[in-house]
Amino acid sequence: MAAEALMTRDIVPARKLTAIVGRVMIADGDTFETRDVPQISVDLEGIALDGLLGERHRGYARAADARVPWYPRGTPIRNARQISIVCSEELADVAARMGIAEIRPEWLGANLVIEGVPSLSMLPRGTRLFFPTAASLAVEEQNVPCKGPGRMIARNVGGDAGMPFDFVRKAARKRGLVAWVERAGVIRVGDTVEIRIPEQWVYA
To answer: Where is the signal peptide, in residue numbers (predicted)?
Structure first.
């Protein structure tokens, strides 16, 4: 009966959207704060930079942290957080909820700002983003807000000690997405993005 009931639940068909790359950014400094560049090259390790300096989130693997409490801290795990993606509409909404003028993507360590998808953070795991130069990204999950970016926001807007906690509350399900590189290529400001959302259902 349980399996039969599951099969009769509503299934949302797969669909496609289009969007625009509004900004492209990299974190190549001492902090997670990012800076604008006209384009990035991506390979299966993430963002590829010239020279010996690596982009902050580059790599096949990363160390387990508080986001994956089922592993001991520091355990090498697959890096599904190579690229951080946000949208300007959601950041404007979070800023309004917090009572501040703006939240800049670079304060959150974002790599891509996507325009034209107001509920970007709600795109499900497995969504693919295809770019004109053949680069593609696979969405891993929502980027759960934490206090680190909240402290960066507070520092830039003159907020108090409670602002990082306020950010965690107000940015829930609006902090954007993390993704990993499925196919190498180049991502440029102004690119049209084809977003392919897989078939969805609720397993309950």
So the answer is: none
Partners of 197 in beta bridges: 15
Specify the fold of 13-197. M1 Pyruvate Kinase; Domain 3 (2.40.33)
Do 128 and 197 meet the contact criterion of CB atoms below 8 Å apart?
A: no
Helical residues (DSSP H) of 13-146, grouped into ranges: 88-98
Q: Would you list the domain boundaries of the chain?
A: 13-197
What secondary structure letter does DSSP report for 118?
Answer: T
- Interatomic CA distance for residues 150 and 146, integer angstroms: 7
* pTM: predicted TM-score of the whole model, two decimal places: 0.92
Residue range 146-177, pLDDT digits in tens: 999 999 999 999 999 999 999 999 999 999 99
Residue 78: CB partners within 8 Å, gap ≥ 6?
60, 61, 62
Half-sphere CA count of 63, side-chain side, radius 13 A:
4
User: Distance (Å, rounded) from C-alpha 123 to C-alpha 128?
Assistant: 10
